[in-house]
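Hey team,

Filing this mostly as a record. A colleague (T.K.) asked me to run one chain through the structure pipeline before their review meeting, and I want the input and output archived in the tracker in case anyone asks later how it was produced. No errors, nothing strange. Just documentation.

Input sequence:
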Amino acid sequence: MNPLVLVHGFMGGGSQWKQQDPLRQNRPLVALDLPGFGARADEAPLPSIAEHGAWVLQELRSLGHGRFDLMGHSMGGMIAQEITRQAPDRVDRLVLYATGPKGTLPGRFEPIETSIERARTEGPRATARQISATWFLETEAAPEYAACAAIAERSRLPAIIAGLRAMQGWNGEGALAGFTCPTLVLWGDRDRTYPWPQIHALWQGIAGSQLAVVPGCAHAVHLEWPSLFNTLVDRFLSR
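Output structure:
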């Protein structure tokens, strides 16, 4: 059985996937922490989405994983697209979750430049808490907000700026037509970061891809409605 590799998003961490533990019943899970974030917050961040993709592929080689299923959330979804472009022979099934093919993030809750300026003037902790709140429909009142914000707060200013610049400088639209692995595009219809045009571009850009839209969820469906999220992912991977 292929492992499912989980790639977290901006200011995230591998521990944010704890509510996906039921997926282990049918496959191993590999929840990575990207350099500069989560458990690797002390490490130097990477400057581009392409370099994140290459880093993940090397990390998986070092762990002994050849072929794998892959799920990326938000910025991690951009990285997952890069991984699929760089090593299509290693990705069996792909889940692109709350993400899009454009790093400029048109329609985001605020422009990337505003987030960069906020991080510089208000500091990384305040930026982490403010951005984390946008991931949930109920913002700071969401049950999972505090734990998510605590992980985001580990991110230091260089990693925050590097992550935002990496997204800003990336565009994966041209690679989508070359994806041949079965793909699920998954999205919460109240997402404040990736509006419908980004999701539609993925769904229509990848031939034969499937679409799952979860109502009444924002950017963190896997935490807002984990049982449904896990069912959708497990059903897709098990077919």
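Quick notes for T.K.: Strands lie at 4-7, 29-31, 68-73, 91-97, 183-188, 210-214. The chain has nine helices and six strands.
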